[in-house]
Amino acid sequence: MQYAALLYFDETSWYSASPAEREQAIAAHDSFTARAAELGVTITGGEALTTTDAATTFRRRGDDISVTDGPFAETAEQLGGFYILDADDLDQVLRLVKHLPEYTIEIRPIDPNPGG
Asked: Angle at which helices 90-97 and 19-39 pack, to 10 degrees?
């Protein structure tokens, strides 16, 4: 089954982090990748996202459309990146994501049959 692991954190913390702190976070992602292979989880995709000041939000409610700069809502944590994981089950994903840096991680199964 495929899962999306959505990584939320305070994006300003990255820019205020020391070089050593940044290296530590990158090392945690490298460890996560290595641990995925050990646990039999395949990472099929994933990316870091740009900051929310580069985001555009598109909303449609019936015939009303609005396009605004920035994220949907002001929050302390922002979506900063994601992984797409092919794993046996949620427990396997939970064992893996504990190797990432201190994020709030939303894990959602990917619908194998959207719209049908």
From this structure: 150
